[in-house]
Amino acid sequence: MPTPHRSPRPPRPRAAPTQRRQPRKPGEKPRWGTRMATGLSVLVLGAGGIGHAVLTNLETGIDRIDPFKDMKNRPAGGHGMNLLLVGTDGRDKITQDEKEKYRLGGAPCHCTDTIMLVHLSADKERASVVSLPRDSYAEIPEHLDQNTGEERAAHPVKLNAAYAEGGPNLTVRTVEHMTGVKVDHYLEVDFTGFMTTVDALGGVQICTARPMKDSYTGLDLAAGPHKLGGGQALQYVRSRHIDGAADLGRMQRQQKFLASLIKQATSSGVLLNPVQFREVASTMLKSVRADKGFGTQQMLDLGEAMRGFSAASSEFASVPMGDVAYQVKGVGSTVKWDPTKSKQLFQALREDKPLAVKRHKQASAKQVDVPPQQIRIQVYNGTPTDGLGGRIDRALHATGFDTTRSPLNAEQRDLKHTLVVYDPRWDRSAKSLAAALPGAELKAVKGQGPTLKVIAGADYAKVERVRAEEPDSGRFGAVKGDEVACP
Questions:
Q1: Between helices 36-47 and 274-285, what is the axis angle to 10°?
Q2: In this structure, are residues 43 and 78 in contact, taking their beta carbons and an 8 Å threshold?
Q3: Which of 57, 179, 451, 487 has the smallest count of CB within 10 Å of its CB?
Q4: pLDDT by residue (tens digit) across 162-171?
Q5: Which uninterrupted H or E stretch holds 118?
Q6: Do 1 and 128 touch, CB atoms closer than 8 A?
Q7: CB of 86 closer than 8 Å to CB of 190
Q8: What does the angle CA 408 – CA 412 – CA 416 come to, to the nearest 5 degrees?
Q9: Could you tell me which residues are beta bridge partners of residue 209?
Q10: Within 327-443, where are the H helices?
């Protein structure tokens, strides 16, 4: 969806590709932007005027499922259309060489690797993509466990476990329960589908502002532009150990990848050449699963409605976080959504309202790598000055940092220099925080966890405004598609 469209063709070919991208997003699965690749084929076909006969022929390659079977007490439908795009960690068709080269070994958990809720506005002029963190705290309803065949009572899990216990049906039920948004269609793709989609398009161009290396996935990119094939693209969207931003950083990279993926598809000749496109689309659709109601006519209607769609018509957001390390007995560390902001976001989807807002000129601020809203901080007063910890906590919070709002006194009360104490895994967050505290010193402490500590020293002077490199506008932090693609 986020593809800055090509200058030579404003008419329908362009619009169509972007649209198609949307529904398929689920196929792009290998994390965020990735699964979207598969969706592109379906949307483009209908919008590109390729025809009912061709679409019908290609549709036979889609594996059909019924994720809505026997569902009751569902949310009321709103305006527009909602698709649940799910990426699984399936890797059965990946060769042994590919598994070794792209670090895809190990047994899959048969759970969802990526979950996105895509809303297409009623006027077909806007697409909103909301990422649902796979580690989100969820309470799944009572259901029949597909592994044991036994009835299970409602219980807490990480969101991605809903698929492992009850497949697409339980995943849809859980998402609807958590968001209050009715899911109209379901699309699913696995690792194989993602890789073949990217390769079918001839690779995707991405840009990195700094070197990226992840020993878990094997990703190793120097700063600058790169043309990624299917395997390397999968590494890029799956990596979560590049820095301390973990899943949050990965979701941002997935957004960028999706934007570049759409840009690549809509600006290349493949979408305008029926023969070539048929080959690409056929490859894409082989690894896709979709609900029975998403067929040829829906594809054609969607394509027709989305002519004129552009990169600026798409927007991306993640569910507002509350506690990113919410501990649940028997489940572990989960991500708990902000109860107020998340409800507002999903209400906006139900009411068919945009999530992103027009960007206004920001007051001068230092540029940092990690948005202040993503940095959790506990403030300590390391001086004998009463109330200093509270002043710093309020100042950091007013600048956008996620402080605990409960400052404490440090054991040492004669500290000369302000300290930022952090776990090495969150080094980028620490540097971003230090930028807001002139003169602060950094101290790494292994195993401290995601919450950074600020210990106020006698040299504390003020908190300076900082802003992230990544676009972050509006109350939901939503960004437009043309803001995250490669320039």
A1: 140
A2: no
A3: 487
A4: 998 888 999 9
A5: strand 112-120
A6: no
A7: no
A8: 105
A9: none
A10: 339-350, 388-398, 427-435
